[in-house]
Design goal:
This protein has two helices and 54 strands. The protein has about 600 residues and is an all-beta fold.
């Protein structure tokens, strides 16, 4: 709710109030990133701060950011949500400087302008601030100089809502939503000498299906032309994308509102951005879109503005991808067109900018208390990438062991969790973390989720740790030999064998060869097979795992003959069978 602003609370136009505020930022976790509230706007002494920032921040040459609020300031000192807005500067760490809080309203101080909007910092180092009434020039130290007002020109009009663009010719270009000739707004140029001229009036009849009411600013293409959008006009009345030369020649590239396209709140109101693929990206109330310099139009319905609201401008980030925020979600679009929902933003962004630290910064009309006071936020996406874990699997009965997590972007203080349990973590490097996993966590077959987290940040998932059953023996070949047998190869069959497994003859480890998860071979020496032993337990141990079940091997006594039949024959007897009786005979025995 708005209350009337009191004239008695206004101070003279062009006066400056500068104050710096340092508060401890408030950090909250967000999926795949951390949101830090750098500054919450509020009304009241001693600052008479601003309220409700509705415009994206502008990066400054020193790494700080400049921004505005739509209301607040000293002109509203006796009213809730009053005042004509403020201009501020804020550092990435949250150091907040109020550069000017004396903007009045349109009825009392029109020469200064009401509701400061976008801030532009061209090559001359000054701040150019658009207001609802005109342009303001300000030095970084907070000295204001009025540049242009709609009162000064019979045609230009009002509603300077968009920021300025410095083109290759050194001039600044901007738009107004309306003009005094009751057409559809203008594109104007401010040359380095401070002279403002109109280069195009929308809807004046010179361009077929011309756009109307340009709420967004302009962007320069690689061809040196200017590109922009209007929120009305065009072939279907829902706005256009246009191309314009710096001399003002306009070409309509696309008209919104066609029944073949998304048709919810179609009118575009956000400034286009030039992507790394040389296409222009923009947003309507229906979807994110991209368009080439020749008018080839593509929509991204995966970015549902119609569901989450907002027509915030897109951003070309340092990684070459396009990022755009709705009121609930941050999306990433690669040059090849792959759309990913990166993380949830519960505060509603007015548009992102990227700092030198790689983090995203944005304003919202929602403050920490979710009221319409507004705040400045920093969103730092998780740069952590987890590539793998070692070992990737263990067997039940494993002793305590080290789990190595490899990847990139790790920090001191990162914590590895396994199976939902956080464990003391050793920071090896930005690519290695190590943690000790206790034996009791791998006592039964299961799949354990592994992740890396830092403080209250959302964990980054890692590959799961697989706990398999310990090895099991099912067969031996041969299953027995006689005492005094020469050395021989014992084949051990079963399940769960791993490379490095060892076969045990009683308590003695045998030279073992790993063949497969179900087969091992081992060499039994003649010395081990020499004594008679009806029950030799054969077991298998995988590395760091308790022994398997046992299969018994038999070493029998040497054969003994007690009788044979017949016991004699005469010379010249035909072939005959000799039956031998005794003990210790085995299959394949030879007489």
């Amino acid at each position: 709710m708005y209350f009337s602003r009191l004239k008695s609370s206004l101070i003279p136009a062009l006066s400056v109030m500068t104050a710096t505020l340092l508060l401890a930022p408030c950090r909250q976790s967000s999926a795949n990133g951390t949101v830090t509230i750098l500054h919450t706007f509020h009304e009241g002494p001693p600052e008479y701060d601003g309220l409700r920032p509705t415009i994206p921040l502008t990066p400054g040459p020193d790494g700080s950011f400049y921004g505005t609020t739509s209301v607040g300031g000293t002109s509203g000192r006796e009213a809730i949500f009053g005042g004509g807005g403020v201009l501020f500067k804020i550092s990435p760490g949250g150091s907040y400087t109020l550069l000017n809080n004396t903007f009045g309203d349109r009825f009392v101080t029109p020469q200064l302008g009401w509701g400061p909007n976008s801030v532009t910092i061209p090559s001359d180092g000054h701040l150019y601030v658009t207001t609802g009434a005109g342009l303001i020039q300000m030095t970084p130290q907070g000295v204001c100089t009025h540049i242009w007002s709609f009162h000064d020109d019979p045609v230009l009009g009002e509603e300077f809502t968009s920021g300025l663009l410095q083109a290759h010719d050194g001039c600044l270009y901007g738009t107004t939503e309306f003009d005094k000739l009751q057409t559809g707004g203008t594109v104007y140029k401010l040359n380095p000498q401070g002279v403002v001229s109109i280069i195009h009036r929308f809807g004046d009849g010179t361009v077929a299906n011309d756009g109307l009411t340009p709420e967004a600013g302009l962007v320069e293409g690689l061809d040196g032309n200017l590109y922009g959008v209007t929120s009305k006009g065009g072939a279907f009345g829902q706005g256009v994308v246009f191309r314009m030369t710096t001399a003002g020649a306009v070409t309509i590239l696309h008209s919104f509102g066609d029944a073949a396209q998304s048709n919810f709140w179609v009118a575009p109101s956000a400034t286009l951005v030039l992507g790394s693929d040389r296409c222009f990206y923009g947003s309507t109330g229906a979807a994110l879109f991209k368009i080439t310099s020749t008018g080839v139009y593509t929509e991204f319905p995966q970015v549902p503005f119609y569901t989450h609201g907002s027509t915030a401008p897109a951003l070309l980030a340092a990684d070459g991808n396009i990022y755009v925020s709705t009121s609930r979600m941050l999306y990433r679009v690669t040059p090849s067109g792959v759309v990913t929902a990166v993380c949830t933003i519960n505060y509603g962004s007015q548009g992102l900018v990227q700092g030198r630290d790689g983090a995203f910064y944005f304003t919202s009309i929602y403050g920490f208390d979710n009221l319409y006071s507004g705040a400045v936020y920093r969103l730092k996406l998780a740069n952590r990438i987890v590539e793998g874990i070692s070992p990737a699997s263990v067997q039940t009965g494993h002793k305590d062991f080290f789990l190595n997590v490899t990847g990139s972007g790790f920090l001191p203080g990162d914590t590895v969790t396994c199976g939902g349990y956080p464990f003391p973590t050793s920071f090896g490097s930005e690519s290695l973390l190590r943690v000790t996993i206790p034996y009791w966590l791998v006592a039964s077959p299961q799949t354990l989720k592994v992740s890396v987290m830092h403080g209250n940040e959302t964990p980054t998932p890692a590959p799961s740790l697989v706990v398999t059953a310990a090895p099991t023996l099912t067969r031996l070949s041969p299953a027995s030999v006689q005492a005094g047998h020469n050395s021989f190869t014992l084949s051990v069959g079963g399940t769960g064998f791993v490379d490095g497994a060892r076969v045990y003859w009683g308590g003695a480890v045998l030279p073992t060869t790993y063949v497969s998860p179900s087969l091992l071979t081992a060499t039994v020496s003649a010395a081990l097979a020499a004594p008679v032993n009806p029950l030799v337990p054969i077991t298998v141990k995988n590395p760091n795992v308790t022994a398997s079940n046992a299969q018994n091997f038999t070493v029998t006594d040497a054969p003994q003959i007690t009788a044979f039949s017949p016991s004699s024959v005469q010379a010249g007897h035909r072939d005959f069978s000799l039956t031998i009786t005794g003990t210790g005979f085995v299959r394949d025995a030879t007489v």
